[in-house]
Amino acid sequence: MAKTKELTLEEKLKEAIIPKEEQPYEIPENWEWVKLGKITDIISGGTPSTEKKEYYENGIIPWITPKDLSKYKSKYIFNGNKNITELGLKNSSARLLPKNSVLLSSRAPIGYVVICKQEVTTNQGFKSFKPSNTYIPEFLYYYLSNSKGYLESIATGTTFKELSGEKVKIICFPLPSLEEQKRIVEKLDSMFEKINRAKELIQEAKENIENRKESILNKAFRGELTVEWRKNNQTEDAIELLKSINDEKIKNWEQECVEAEKNGKKKPSKAKIEEIQNMIISKEEEPYEVPKNWKWVKLGKITNIISGGTPSTEKKENYENGTIPWITPKDLSKYKSKYILSGNKNITELGLKNSSARLLPKNSVLLSSRAPIGYVVICKQEVATNQGFKSFEPSFLYIPEFLYYYLLNSKGYLESIATGTTFKELSGEKVKTIYFPLPPLKEQKEIVRILDEILEKESKIKELIELEEAIELLEKSILDKAFRGKLGTQNKDDEPAIKLLKKIL
Predict the structure, then answer these.
(1) Residue 469's pLDDT is what?
(2) Of residues 217, 149, 145, 223, the one with CA closest to residue 188
(3) Residue 415 CB-half CA count within 13 A
(4) In total, how many domains does the chain have?
């Protein structure tokens, strides 16, 4: 059998160093662009058979999966959620990784990075880098943490993207001297300690604001925000408000009759009179106690609930030059305002006519009923929606803002009454049965006034999110500078990286 010819140092260097024309960006003269696979061993993981208890039971070898890192914030890791046994290690493709190995998740998802601080194993969702004399682990950790986009771009696969061992071996890596690596890591550690603390404070503030918001809304719909107001203001009982529904129905019917007679048309059927007791929820069914002059009702008894629809996308005439605002849940995914005038698309009169979409009057309250459930907004002009909404036409029994705030505070409840297997959805029948605490109109207005005032002060989350985004850009900028040699850490007396390569190749 012919003996494999030993490569010369020059040949090894040629294989390791990335040619000038292939280098991703310019780095200092005494650094070198190298292929990671030429300066360290790259190890895949494996999963022992889950059917054999002896591979896991009483195991003492930490076994890490990408799932263990989904919300993991530390740079270092000691163990995951499971251990495996020596037998499990022996009878799988899992490999024991030495302390200070750098673990990179290579699928589902790509780009989690940690440094192990004791011997560990991983599943097949990792490509891990054994310690090397050419880099310190933290330097590689920061580089890979800043390379998620690049790593995803070189991944392959159809069902899901994955970084193969061969792809990982050719990852471009900017290699400075070990002294420079240490200085860069020290500087990054110092900077990111402050940045991470700032992020923690922002997260705490966001959670506090959300908790306060929830508490305020809960108090509002229990009548706790207007205790003093009720003492100083006489209002009718909500039952009087409900009684006026039938008066309004008769009034509207009479008006329709007049219009029909004027136009020579057939008179409409007489208005259906609703028994007040049928509109009110019984005492034993009430979700919680409200003031005596409030009444619990079902929303379907006090307003019309309208579904939406989507005109055929194959017909241009349904959309082209359309003037009717058409709103989808997607339009509300990052929408912060209480009111809306339009979405990303308009439809035409023809599109409206040839679909189940309905024209909703100004001040209708729109509730997304699927994908996801719980977006709420008030339209400030006539709009239509797709089938992802159940919308509430204006009613003289409530002001739109009062219903808006109530639905906003009811997301958990709305999700709990939704049904479906592929995705959860609120049906029209379910929406009709939503329990709604109905105060007198004057008190509704006062509650809305208080909520507007308080929640305006509490609406700092948008600012905090913008600050988070600014911090993320700062992180990216710092890391970009670090791996371009622009952090101000260079020392011209450092030995060139080429000498480091020659020592280890």
Answers:
(1) 81
(2) 145
(3) 11
(4) 4
